[in-house]
Every structure is written in C-alpha cells, then in structure tokens.
Amino acid sequence: MEKKKPKKIFVQGAIPPEKIAGAIANHQSKTNIGAHSIFLGQIRADEIEGRTVSAIEYTAYEEMAENIYHEIRETAFSKFNITCAHVYHSLGKVKTGELCLFVFTSSAHRKMAIEACNYFVEEIKTKLPIFGKEIFEDETHQWKVNK
Known about the structure:
- By secondary structure, this protein is of the alpha+beta class.
- The protein has one domain (10-143): Alpha-Beta Complex (Aldehyde Oxidoreductase, domain 3).
- The protein has helices spanning 17-26, 62-79, 110-127, and strands at residues 10-12, 35-42, 47-48, 51-60, 82-95, 99-107, 130-136, 141-143.
- Strands 1, 2, 3, 4, 5, 6, 7 and 8 form an 8-stranded mixed sheet that branches.
- A hairpin with a 3-residue loop joins β5 (82-95) and β6.
- The mean pLDDT is 92.
C-alpha cells in the first residue's frame, strides 16, 4: 500500500477570503455532498494588562506539524463519514481582524460535517506544534496561551 504524503497546511500571512470562496466554489460540482462546515479563526484585539493585541506572529515546527496533522486527518476520515477536509493555518504576522485558521469539512449530512470540523479544530489546537507571539500596539510581545 502506498503511503500518503502529509498535506501542506501552512500559508504565509493571513488567509485571504478568496481562498475560502474558492474552496466553496470548487465543491459545487460534487453532488454527493449535502453539507459543509467551516471554522474561521480570526485574530482578536485582546486587552492584556492594559495593552491591546495588534497582531500574532505564528511559527511552527512545520514538518512535525504536517506529520501530526496527517495522523489527525486519517483518524477523522475513519471516525466521521466525510467526503473531504481542507485545513490552512497561517505562519508569520497576522493582524487583528485577519484570518489565521481555516477548517472546511464536507459530507452527505450536516451532523458529520459539523462534528468533523469541531474535531479538526480541537486536535489542531491541542496537538500541533504551532506557536503564536502576541504583538501589542506598543510593539512589546509575549507568547500566546491557547484557551
């Protein structure tokens, strides 16, 4: 059996809305799909100790993250009856209001698409070696803690 190569999930900078629109448009011809679920992660202007976040700079152990993501993806396809899944995560600086995570799942029925999408988000947030440095308006910074 041929071993599948891990998918590339990282994009430089913010995830452009056109990427999301393109993903949706590319699935219109797939008539076995009855539902899509989409999660969009966006940078918030959190206030921490009197300072406001203006951006997050993401770094990752890319090869390790893509290998772990591959395992998450394989598990999702065996656990949920989904037809496809697409995940993109930002690297580099992403400003407040911009998108940093795009998870898109499809299936014949909504319940599976929603459950699979939630599964991907939780697994990505807890297992992938992706690190965010919060950059404040005064140019100071600190490592982000996922919640």
